[in-house]
């Protein structure tokens, strides 16, 4: 391929990564703006919770159907419609005059993010091969890590710059000019659909509406009890989980016997790279996103940190993740799952050091004391997310990249919701012992989840060694 073709792919990748950054940023950027939203719109705790969890819910619901739609029709078209919807809903959030308007806009914004994200992974599968694909996924991993970790910092900076009355609006409005710029670039740079006999056959096939419905109901049933754990009083909410598992069992049965092309190709899970990679992603994200939730609460409520200072305190994790993700993308083709196992071990070491720092420096200087441990944990994270995604999707045919990535990312969203709920429950339940103790107890939940991910990576290495005699 000529230099111009390579340059075009790099520019197309930049378009994809910018969209992924926007959607990832909105997972965490709102956290530090919640006090301003509460005051500005006279919001209840229930309304604030839906501002956070509504986005996560609809984000997770659309990943697999949108990935399949992009595979069957046009990833570029679905990507562009997703950016349009994300831009408009961001504007609606920013100009919201009531909590109901804000919540509905956030739900739509989550749907738009669910449309865009699987197209990004699918397009990387389509545009890159071999070590170039590993580097592209390395850049995507850096983007995911930075956007999630930098959300509190960027949100805090916007609230500080524009004041408590209007700063929270700019947390959403900042997406609007980015979306406007992205659209013509996406139209120009992203590859058009390739009209082969196979793609024409897929265009004529059903998009499996029954499968979409069963998966949507099952995922929603799993997510709701966790994201509404405080607002939905009583224990009946947990009955949704076994009901959702029954629905998902029905989904698996339907997909197995569906006479056309199913929504999810279950044969993928017979590939060890995909099944174990999905397990690693599920449990790692259950820990990964819980860190930011309890850490910002600890700093802002326990030590009266401002939104900006709380965001700055989590920045070392973001910097470590960004730098290591690029390195991880270059090394994954040679080191394989060993790199993921090393990254998970590094995260565990960094978080144990973070716990020690909060015990040794319990006062207002805790943000400074945890900077180096969080940097180490972030570097480990950068060696987990992008290499694991590259390995997990390595045996997936490019024409099915979007739907396979959608399944993987749905697991990540489920893990995030469950992890935040579990860490938050332990955190709030331990507040009587002090903020620092509550934070350390929450970190233990995070560490437990990451240890399970490490066990899956080690198991994969052992199986590979027994099969091939190498630890690749």
TrEMBL record:
Keywords: Cell membrane, Membrane, Transmembrane, Transmembrane helix, Transport. GO terms for cellular component: plasma membrane. The keyword Acetylation does not apply. Its main location: membrane. It is found in: Cell membrane. The chain crosses the membrane at residues 12-35, 47-66, 78-97, 103-124, 136-162, 168-186, 207-227, 239-258, 279-299, 305-327, 339-360, 366-385, 414-431, 443-462. It is a multi-pass membrane protein. This is MFS transporter. It comes from Nonomuraea zeae.
């Amino acid at each position: 391929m000529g230099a111009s073709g390579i340059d075009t792919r790099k520019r197309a990748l930049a378009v994809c990564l910018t969209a992924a950054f926007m959607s990832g940023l909105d997972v965490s950027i709102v956290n530090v703006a919640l006090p301003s939203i509460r005051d500005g719109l006279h919001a209840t705790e229930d309304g604030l919770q839906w501002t956070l969890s509504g986005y996560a819910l609809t984000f997770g619901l659309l990943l697999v159907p949108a990935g399949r739609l992009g595979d069957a029709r046009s990833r570029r078209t679905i990507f562009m419609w997703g950016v349009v919807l994300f831009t408009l809903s961001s504007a609606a959030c920013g100009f919201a005059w009531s909590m109901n308007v804000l919540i509905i806009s956030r739900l739509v914004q989550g749907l738009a993010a669910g449309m865009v994200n699987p197209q990004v992974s699918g397009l990387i599968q389509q545009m890159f091969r071999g070590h170039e694909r590993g580097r592209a996924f390395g850049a995507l991993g850096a983007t995911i890590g930075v956007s999630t970790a930098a959300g509190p910092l960027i949100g805090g900076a916007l609230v500080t710059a524009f004041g408590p009355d209007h700063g929270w609006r700019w947390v959403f409005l900042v997406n609007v000019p980015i979306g406007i710029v992205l659209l013509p670039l996406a139209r120009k740079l992203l590859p058009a659909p390739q009209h082969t006999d196979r793609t024409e056959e897929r265009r004529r096939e059903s998009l499996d509406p029954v499968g979409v419905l069963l998966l949507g109901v099952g995922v929603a049933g799993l997510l709701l009890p966790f994201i509404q754990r405080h607002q939905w009083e009583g224990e009946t909410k947990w009955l949704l989980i076994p009901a959702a598992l029954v629905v998902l069992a029905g989904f698996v049965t339907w997909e197995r016997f569906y006479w056309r092309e199913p929504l999810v190709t279950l044969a993928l899970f017979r590939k060890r790279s995909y099944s174990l990679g999905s397990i690693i992603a599920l449990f790692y994200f259950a820990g990964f996103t819980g860190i930011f939730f309890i850490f910002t609460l600890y700093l802002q409520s326990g030590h009266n940190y401002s939104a900006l200072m709380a965001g700055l305190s989590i920045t070392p994790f973001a910097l470590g993740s960004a730098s290591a993700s690029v390195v991880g993308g270059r090394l994954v083709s040679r080191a394989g799952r060993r790199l993921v196992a090393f990254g998970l071990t590094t995260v565990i070491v960094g978080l144990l050091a973070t716990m020690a720092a909060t015990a040794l420096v319990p006062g207002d200087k805790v943000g400074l004391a945890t900077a180096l441990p969080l940097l180490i944990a972030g570097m480990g994270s950068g060696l987990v997310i992008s290499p694991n995604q590259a390995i997990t999707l390595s045996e997936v045919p490019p024409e099915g990249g979007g739907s396979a990535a959608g399944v993987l990312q749905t697991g990540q969203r489920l893990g995030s919701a469950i992890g935040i709920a579990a860490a938050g429950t332990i955190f709030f339940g331990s507040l009587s012992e002090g903020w620092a103790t509550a934070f350390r107890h929450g970190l233990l939940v995070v560490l437990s989840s990451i240890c399970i991910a490490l066990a899956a990576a080690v198991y994969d290495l052992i199986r590979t060694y027994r099969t091939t005699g190498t630890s690749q």
